[in-house]
Each structure stands twice: as C-alpha cells, then as structure tokens.
Amino acid sequence: MACENEYSHLIHKYLDEEMTLLEKKKLENHLLHCADCSGHLRELRKTVAIVQSASHMEAPKDFTANVMKQLPKETRTNQWKTWTRRHPYLITAAVFFLVFIMSVSSIWTGGQKEIIVQGDGHFVVDEERGVVIIPEGEVISGDITVRNGDIEIAGEVNGSITVINGELIYSDLTNGENYLASTGHVAGEINEINQVFGWLWFHIKSFFSDVINVFN
Amino acid sequence: MDAVVKKIIIEVKKGDQQAFSELVEIYKDKVYQVAYRMLGNAHEAQDVAQEAFLRAYTNLETYDINRKFSTWLFRIATNLAIDRIRKKKPDFHLEDQVAGTEDLNYYSQIATDEALPEDQVVKFEMQEWVQNEIMMLPPKYRSAIILKYMEDLSLKEISEILNLPVATVKTRIHRGREALRKRLRDS
C-alpha cells in the first residue's frame, strides 16, 4: 500500500500520457513487479472505460421549442425586419402590386360621371344621350377610347376602339348583326369593358405591352 | 462546423430570433447531458439546460465571436448546475456519521434509496451505477470528470469552462478518478 501511494501520482500521469519516455519505462518496469500498482492502474482504466461507456444522452424532444417559447419577445420592428430580410421578392412583389392597384383604381374611379374621349379626329359628344358620335365622312386617324359613354360610328376609325363603361350602338338598324353603322368602318379591334375585372385585365395587358415596348 | 455556428450567431445578433433555434438544436444534447450528469435527474437537468440557453441568448452581446461558442455555453451551463447543487446542498457531508450511530454514515442511507421503484425500472444497471457514482463525487470533481470523460473535452477547454488553471483541472480529474476507482472496487 505504501508503494501504491508513492506511485499513485505517476500512475495518473501515465494514464494521461503525460510522461517522458524514461519515466514511462521506469514505471512500466515497476508495474511488472508490483501487483498492487498494476492492479491500481487496471482498476483506473476500467473506471475510465465505464464512465466513458455511459451512453450519450439526448435532450427531451420538445427542448428546442421550450427554449424558443421562453426567449424574450422580439420587438415588432425586429420581426418585420427579419421577415423582410427573409422574403425580399415577396416584399418587392407586394409593393409593386400595391402601386399598381392604386394607379388602376385612380384611373377607374377618376371622372366617373363625365364622358372622356381619347383619340385624334372629329367627333361629336352628345352629352344628353351620353354618346360619342363619329359623323359620316369623318376619319379618326388612330385609336379611340371612350369612357362612361357609348360610341356610334358612322365615319371611319383607322385604329382600335375601346369602350369603357359603355357600348357600341347601332345607328342603322338595317345592319343588325353588326355593331357598326352601315357606313362605318373600323380598321382595328373593338374592346368593350364594363366590369372592373375586365377593366383590370385590359390594363394589365396594356401595361405589359407598354413594358415590352419600353424594353424594345 | 465552427463557421456554421459563427454564421448563425451573427444572424442572431442582427436580431433574427429564429436562427437561435438552430444553435439550440446543435448543442442541446451536450448541454443537457452536462446538466443531467451534474444534477442526476431529468427535471432539473432540463430546467438548467434551458436556462443556460436563455442566458446565452440574452448575453450573446458579451460573447466574443473569435472564441469557441461551445466553451462559452458549457461555462454558463456548468455554472448554473453548480449554483443549483449549492442551493439544494445539505449542510452535512456524506462521510459524516449519522447522529446517534456508531459506524453509520450517510452513504449507507443513500444506499437504501436505491430501492425506490423509480430507480428499479432502469434497465441499464451499469448506466445507473455510473450516474450514482458520479453523483457521489463532490461537485468540483464531478464537473471535471463529466467534461473530460463524457463530453470528451481537452484539458485546456475544461480549464476555460471551469475558469481554473490546467494543473488544477488535472488534479481534480485525478482525484475524481481515484474516488470512482475506490467505489468501483468496493461495490
């Protein structure tokens, strides 16, 4: 036992592999002859092995969730900042959409009562009936757009006609299957828009064709 | 691994709270194990381990990003566990003689506790033995042994976690090891 005390420190050093080669040799030599000390070393090794064999533990399943629940609440601005940083495209799209809706709605609601006509050429606006008349013999050189009114064509339109919140009306009933007066002529397309969604769709289409034109 | 942890910490510092859950996922088992081995029961272990993460979150500003995060986190966890042990520590020592008896110390009292049904359910007797024996160690040896042999940390890391010189850590490991050996031989 006296031996064990003397060598105890050395045995621990040996176990930690912190000995010089010479110290190691000396101790190993001693261990060969001393049953107490070699037993001591064996027991220590066994102890370490048992402790190391203790399986690794796992935290309970809801551990992370519990921790996250207890964290101090993020401030609103921080949450917003984090969210926007995580979804840059969504934010861009949302802002874009908002601007779009605002501009479209201002166009839609603006001047609800008045008849608005856009186009080059001579036409007559009949305020009482709410009709825009293109008289016979007159020519509208480009497109024509009529809002909040009907359109009656006796002359010619070289572009397209867009009627918003109104319709093409017949001036000559003999040409019943056609919207146009018998003498009228339209070179382009005819669009009638009476619903907000139709109106939106029209604007989306024209917006994108504008965009494409800009890039071209 | 360290680079990933660094990136997450930077995110959390910027204010991304959700990123912290990734840190918890990475270290929860290790922190829980330290807490459990130190305290010896699941309820307290979970309590202390969670508290360690909460403290880490609130004190993240004081963490030096150039040092190892696990060392810092383990330091918080072991300190909390040691505090917890101190609070519930009885003011007698296990080797003390039980009053009014000749040769009965508190170790023998503890041995009778092993008959509790809760303990009998345990399938792995050796596991249980290890935990029991570790619980017998004084906390200062206990922490050194756990960090060394259960978390496989280097002496340098342990010395940083426990805020002690490496030589002291060595001594504690030696003494802890010796105490465990004696108990193993006697059992």
UniProtKB/TrEMBL annotation, chain A:
It comes from the Bacteria. The keyword Transport does not apply. Residues 6-37 form the Putative zinc-finger domain. The keyword Membrane applies. Keywords: Membrane, Transmembrane, Transmembrane helix. The chain crosses the membrane at residues 89-108. InterPro entries: Anti_sigma_zinc_sf, Znf_put. It holds the Pfam family zf-HC2. Gene3D superfamilies: Anti-sigma factor, zinc-finger domain (1.10.10.1320). Belongs to the zinc-associated anti-sigma factor (ZAS) superfamily. Anti-sigma-W factor family. This is Anti-sigma-W factor RsiW. It comes from Evansella alkalicola. The lineage of its organism: Bacteria, Bacillati, Bacillota, Bacilli, Bacillales.
TrEMBL record, chain B:
The gene is sigW. The lineage of its organism: Bacteria, Bacillati, Bacillota, Bacilli, Bacillales. PROSITE patterns: SIGMA70_ECF. SUPFAM superfamilies: Sigma2 domain of RNA polymerase sigma factors (SSF88946), Sigma3 and sigma4 domains of RNA polymerase sigma factors (SSF88659). The keyword Transcription applies. Keywords: DNA-binding, Sigma factor, Transcription, Transcription regulation. Belongs to the sigma-70 factor family. ECF subfamily. Signal peptide: none annotated. It holds the Pfam family Sigma70_r4_2. Residues 128-180 form the RNA polymerase sigma factor 70 region 4 type domain. PANTHER family: RNA POLYMERASE ECF-TYPE SIGMA FACTO, RNA POLYMERASE SIGMA FACTOR SIGV. InterPro entries: RNA_pol_sigma-70-like (IPR039425), RNA_pol_sigma-70_dom (IPR014284), RNA_pol_sigma-W_bacilli (IPR014294), RNA_pol_sigma70_ECF_CS (IPR000838), RNA_pol_sigma70_r2 (IPR007627), RNA_pol_sigma70_r4_t2 (IPR013249), RNA_pol_sigma_r2 (IPR013325), RNA_pol_sigma_r3/r4-like (IPR013324). It comes from Evansella alkalicola. It comes from the Bacteria. This is RNA polymerase sigma factor. The keyword Iron does not apply. Residues 23-89 form the RNA polymerase sigma-70 region domain.
